[in-house]
Amino acid sequence: MNQEERFISHEPFRFDEEEVLLRSRQLLEYSDRRRSIRSFSDRDIPFEAIKNILMTASTAPSGAHKQPWTFCVVRSQEMKSKIRAAAEKEEKESYEHRMSDQWLKDLEPFGTDWRKPFLETVPWIIVVFKRAFEYENGQKHQIFYVNESVGIACGMLINAIHHAGLATLTHTPSPMNFLTTLLDRPDNERPFLLLPVGYPADDVKVPNIRRKHFEEVVKLFD
Fold it and tell me: DSSP 3-state assignment of 49?
């Protein structure tokens, strides 16, 4: 590829100030309604919607455009049951032996424990794997900014799920190596995040907590 072929023309959006303010406000209002959900409906979701959500996440920027993520999509009830059993085994050990008293205290407002029935209720589970390195001609090649790149993609994934009118939960049973085995992933992939995806249950309730205010999260250098 010669120098001229390395770059192509791009036509970005060009909104006026009023439209910029309106769109930023609308997205904030919509995003502020997002909540992590632990009680799901078993109502089905078409795969086409899941595909669109995943490809939206895959538009995320990544270090050197390596796109070091793999999205494993689980619909099989048998596989969901296996994931739940393995996750609950690790979670039970964590809640009873691994977590510190402070950690358990911080979790009290959420009313959680090691039981994860939602892993079998939801129609879909997305397991995000990060690619730690690549193979090229049989040789290992390092990928830079893997965690940052995959983290950005996961944020965009969560936002895409919410935008579609669906709900999810960032679930990280630790350790997560059982996912590598169950989903038969290669040795250059590591489990990063598990996301159950579905509609909230009709009687869903969420913790009575608040997000930090602007002044608590932003420092302005004008």
Answer: helix
Determine the Cα–Cα distance for residues 58 and 147; give it in Å rounded to an integer. 15
Rounded Cα distance, 67 and 149, in Å? 7
pTM given for the model: 0.95
3-state helix, strand, coil in the chain (%, to 5): 45, 15, 40
Cα separation of 162 and 156, whole Å?
A: 10
**In whole angstroms, what is the distance from residue 69 CA to residue 192 CA?**
9
Q: Which sequence spans correspond to the domains of the chain? A: 38-199
- Nearest Cα neighbor of 147 from 66, 39, 214 is 66
pLDDT of 173 over the 90 cut: no
Domain covering 38-199: architecture:
3-Layer(aba) Sandwich (3.40)
Looking at residue 96, the DSSP 8-state letter turns out to be I
Q: What is the pLDDT of residue 1?
A: 64
Q: Tokens 């790149």 — which residue?
A: 149
